[in-house]
Design brief:
Strand order of the largest sheet: 1-2
Largest sheet: 2 strands, antiparallel
Radius of gyration: 23 Å
Number of helices: 19
Order of helices and strands: EHHHHHHHHHHHEHHHHHHHH
Structural class: mainly alpha
Helix content: over 70%
Shape: globular
């Protein structure tokens, strides 16, 4: 008698409180490392432009554009990572997929801190940096799908939005940690020291963080096997086979593709506005408005504080009144206020407290979308394709509208001289997201995951 091959893995239908907390922590810590790293690359974009992309006598703006191009390349490999690691997580298990991505992410990030610069090895330096950015993109693409699947599938009833919001909250904490490290280094080091060796420190710090994340993920509970696929009947036999155990129907590829495209639309404003105000802003303030490195980073810290402050309340509120209401409110807030807030920041005579409040408000608006967002995406896909589907939607949205944000804004501002480009970009993408979010059902938060 032949033993049937095991089918796809799935999480347990219910999770013990200890398992739910372990899943929450293990999912969050890897995500923290990912966004810490992506934040510090954005904050040090002017440093990377000088050290890796600007040969002697080259243009600073051209070097910055190339640095952002390398930033964008990593984002375009995120969908590849989402497809590869998402499929692995759906077929083999969430835990082994999360272990693999945190190892890849930590190794690539720490290696960036050891890279020789353009002055040392010439044109090979930017290519090596871009290669490591590609590896980071692959790992980051697999991170979101696995982490959000684990966190939402293990969430207690009525708290899926809150548990999913921790994913977005660790985005804010990671960005804040990166900004904090950058501010400290910029304050205690001279410009020569910062550009010479100081920028390496934040990347090397990911090594001990990654080891902690690895240990936590190895302690995750294993996935349960789905109902096995019955073997094909033997030829030339009239003996009826036993009835096959019934399991959930496999989703059609067309339905999954449609859900991914819709998920990209729903996430567009979150991705674009989030990177505009939370990551790209320091370089924009320096290159366009002539703000000092320290003041630009301080402004970004305020925006990220607003982002962090609104995420968990937004996720919890979405468990009560629905994902659609909260996310549409956030998208409308950012779309309506993006240009006025940017004009306030641009005003050289404006009071510092008003500018800080404007950046805080911009971050809070993005947080209203980011809080319920992970649970919203998890609810769009059945368990058999959840890692892959939500990971692809998130990765594609970030590749198209976040990874290119710095490149688009820097290039368009340089060519047109229009300093309002970041506001137009954030407002337009949020307006499109409103239309996509209105297709959500009002009771999705009350339904069980498929």
């Amino acid at each position: 008698m032949t033993t049937p091959a095991p089918g796809p893995v799935r999480p347990p239908a219910t999770a013990r409180p200890d398992d739910a907390r372990r899943a929450l922590v293990a999912g969050s810590v890897g995500n923290f490392i990912e966004w810490y790293e992506f934040g510090i690359y954005g904050y040090f974009a002017t440093v990377f432009a000088a050290q890796f992309f600007t040969p002697e006598g080259g243009s600073e703006v051209e070097g910055l554009v190339k640095a952002y191009a390398s930033f964008a390349v990593a984002f375009f490999f995120r969908p590849v990572g989402a497809a590869v690691f998402g499929r692995f997580g759906d077929r083999v298990g969430r835990r082994p997929a999360l272990v693999l991505v945190v190892c890849l992410m930590t190794g690539a990030t720490a290696t960036i801190g050891l890279l020789p610069t353009y002055a040392s090895i010439g044109a090979a330096a930017p290519w090596l940096l871009t290669l490591l950015r590609i590896l980071q993109g692959l790992s980051a693409g697999g991170e979101f799908g696995g982490a959000v699947s684990v966190m939402t599938e293990c969430a207690p009833p009525g708290r899926r939005g809150l548990y999913g919001a921790w994913q977005s909250f660790t985005v804010a904490v990671g960005l804040l940690a990166g900004a904090g490290v950058a501010v400290v280094l910029a304050s205690v080091l001279t410009a020569e020291q910062l550009y010479g060796w100081g920028w390496r420190v934040p990347f090397l710090l990911t090594l001990p963080l990654g080891l902690v994340a690895l240990r936590l993920r190895l302690r995750l509970p294993p996935d349960e096997p789905s109902a096995p696929v019955p073997p094909a009947p033997l030829p030339f036999t009239s003996v009826p086979s036993a009835p096959a155990p019934e399991g959930p129907a496999r989703p059609r590829p067309r339905e999954t593709v449609r859900a991914v495209v819709l998920g990209v639309g729903r996430m567009m404003g979150w991705s674009a506005a989030g990177y505009t105000f939370l990551v790209v802003m320091p370089s924009y303030l320096q290159s366009t408005l002539g703000t000092s490195f320290q003041r630009a980073l301080l402004g970004t810290v305020l925006a990220n504080l607003g982002f962090a402050a609104s995420i968990l309340p937004a996720g919890r509120l979405s468990d009560r009144i629905g994902r659609r209401t909260v996310m549409v409110a956030g998208a409308l807030l950012v779309a309506g206020l993006a240009l006025p807030l940017l004009h306030l920041v641009q005003d050289p005579g404006g009071p510092a407290y008003a500018k800080g409040a404007a950046l805080f408000a911009a971050g809070a608006g993005v947080g209203l979308m980011a809080g319920p967002g992970p649970a919203m995406l998890a609810e769009m896909f059945p368990a058999r394709v959840r890692c892959t589907g939500l990971g692809l939607a998130y990765a594609l949205s970030n590749a198209l509208f976040a990874g290119c944000a710095g490149l688009i804004i820097t290039e368009v501002v340089e060519r047109t001289g229009n300093a309002d480009v970041p506001g137009y970009y954030a407002a337009a993408t949020c307006a499109v997201s409103v239309a996509a979010l209105l297709t959500l059902r009002g009771d999705d938060h009350e339904r069980a995951l498929r």
